[in-house]
């Protein structure tokens, strides 16, 4: 019998759910023993349910092909079979919050890719290299929910991963004003070019809700756990303003960012801060952690999606074109893989951190 933790993937048939099952194939700590989706798909084998709609560039893992999809609404039944779940369900926010909280109250930790609980004050929203200490708020969440082991943790929006790590590396220089425009891949909407042919050769200057997430979520990540409020209190700086644009790219979100600093760093100080930035995942040697979290690229035409999106198996962030600006102090271009670091991979790394910290254990 395997000593790996038993994992359920809720919302397993969508693009992020598919990424979860591929990333977890042969994972050293976790084993997918259950897949769930809507009642419409329940009862089918996973292989049959994704037939004709498999979006990954690798085959369906053998280990999950014959798993029979369960109805994600059958919380107690699913909770009895797994140690924790990854959530990639596609419901409206109210229903997502209700379902994820039901799993937590069934004493089953939830590591979610969804946005529904990102602004729940006692739910940690974690980029493991940046704010691993935010998991301290889980004790207060459990107190509110009345649970002993159940809780919810979330990963942030994929759009912020291409610039927030750089700004985190530069916090010592006190950035106080940021302008960022993100150029976002279609897989961020769960689409391929086959699904969305009108995106070929096209740019859409609007992604619903994305700019608010891009401006607010880094502030929670840079906030702190307040023991009196029993919550994470966001910081109020830097001020961030964004535009989010959909571009005809399959994987990879690119950001063009401008920054003002209270302090006056040199270019070499900024580059050194990027290249030397690491965190708990690297210190702990977590299975999905990139050895180099951020790479700095000196070529004028890098980073590029076609050449750099898979840096560190998609879990690393690439920064380039750092140069002085006439209006702001510095400007740069960032690139991150939106479904690896930005979605399922970031959630897997978060779960690895939570296991290492003792929050996720075998039942």
TrEMBL record:
<feature type="active site" description="Acyl-thioester intermediate">
    <location>
        <position position="158"/>
    </location>
</feature>
<dbReference type="Pfam" id="PF01118">
    <property type="entry name" value="Semialdhyde_dh"/>
</dbReference>
<feature type="domain" description="Semialdehyde dehydrogenase NAD-binding">
    <location>
        <begin position="6"/>
        <end position="138"/>
    </location>
</feature>
<comment type="similarity">
    <text>Belongs to the aspartate-semialdehyde dehydrogenase family.</text>
</comment>
<dbReference type="GO" id="GO:0009086">
    <property type="term" value="P:methionine biosynthetic process"/>
</dbReference>
<dbReference type="GO" id="GO:0046983">
    <property type="term" value="F:protein dimerization activity"/>
</dbReference>
<feature type="active site" description="Proton acceptor">
    <location>
        <position position="253"/>
    </location>
</feature>
<dbReference type="InterPro" id="IPR000534">
    <property type="entry name" value="Semialdehyde_DH_NAD-bd"/>
</dbReference>
<dbReference type="InterPro" id="IPR012280">
    <property type="entry name" value="Semialdhyde_DH_dimer_dom"/>
</dbReference>
<dbReference type="InterPro" id="IPR005676">
    <property type="entry name" value="Asp_semi-ald_DH_pep-lack"/>
</dbReference>
<dbReference type="Pfam" id="PF02774">
    <property type="entry name" value="Semialdhyde_dhC"/>
</dbReference>
<keyword id="KW-0521">NADP</keyword>
<protein>
    <submittedName>
        <fullName>Aspartate-semialdehyde dehydrogenase</fullName>
    </submittedName>
</protein>
<dbReference type="GO" id="GO:0004073">
    <property type="term" value="F:aspartate-semialdehyde dehydrogenase activity"/>
</dbReference>
<keyword id="KW-0560">Oxidoreductase</keyword>
<dbReference type="GO" id="GO:0051287">
    <property type="term" value="F:NAD binding"/>
</dbReference>
<dbReference type="InterPro" id="IPR051823">
    <property type="entry name" value="ASADH-related"/>
</dbReference>
<dbReference type="GO" id="GO:0050661">
    <property type="term" value="F:NADP binding"/>
</dbReference>
<dbReference type="InterPro" id="IPR036291">
    <property type="entry name" value="NAD(P)-bd_dom_sf"/>
</dbReference>
<dbReference type="GO" id="GO:0009088">
    <property type="term" value="P:threonine biosynthetic process"/>
</dbReference>
């Amino acid at each position: 019998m395997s000593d790996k933790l038993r994992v359920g993937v809720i919302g397993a048939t969508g693009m992020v759910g598919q990424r979860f099952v591929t990333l977890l194939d042969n994972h050293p700590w976790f084993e997918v023993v259950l897949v769930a989706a809507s009642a419409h798909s329940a009862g089918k084998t996973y292989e049959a349910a994704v037939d004709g709609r498999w979006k990954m560039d690798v085959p369906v893992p053998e280990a999950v092909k014959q798993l029979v999809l369960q109805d994600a609404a059958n919380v107690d039944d699913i909770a009895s079979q797994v140690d924790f779940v990854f959530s990639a369900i596609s419901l409206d926010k109210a229903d997502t919050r209700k379902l994820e909280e039901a799993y937590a109250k069934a004493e089953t930790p939830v590591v979610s890719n969804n946005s529904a609980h990102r602004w729940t004050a006692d739910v940690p929203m974690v980029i493991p290299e940046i704010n691993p200490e935010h998991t301290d708020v889980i004790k207060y969440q459990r107190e509110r929910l009345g649970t002993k082991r159940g809780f919810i943790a979330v990963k942030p929006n994929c759009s912020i991963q291409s610039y927030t790590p750089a700004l985190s590396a530069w916090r010592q220089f006190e950035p106080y004003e940021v302008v960022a425009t993100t150029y976002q891949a279609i897989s961020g909407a769960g689409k391929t070019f086959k699904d969305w042919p009108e995106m070929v050769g096209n740019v859409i200057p609007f992604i619903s809700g994305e700019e608010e997430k891009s401006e607010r979520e880094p502030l929670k990540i840079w906030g702190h756990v307040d023991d009196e409020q029993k919550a994470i209190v966001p910081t109020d700086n830097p001020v961030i303003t964004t535009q989010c644009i959909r571009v005809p790219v399959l994987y990879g979100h690119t950001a063009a960012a401008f920054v003002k600093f209270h302090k006056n760093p040199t270019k070499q100080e900024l580059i050194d801060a990027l290249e030397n930035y690491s965190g708990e995942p690297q210190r702990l040697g977590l299975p999905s952690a990139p050895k180099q979290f951020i790479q700095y690229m000196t070529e004028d035409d890098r980073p590029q999606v076609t050449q750099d999106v898979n840096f560190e198996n998609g879990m690393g962030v690439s920064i380039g074109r750092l140069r002085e600006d006439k209006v702001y102090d510095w400007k740069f271009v960032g690139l991150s893989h939106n479904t690896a670091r930005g979605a399922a991979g970031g959630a897997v790394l978060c779960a690895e951190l939570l296991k290492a910290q003792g929050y996720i254990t075998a039942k």
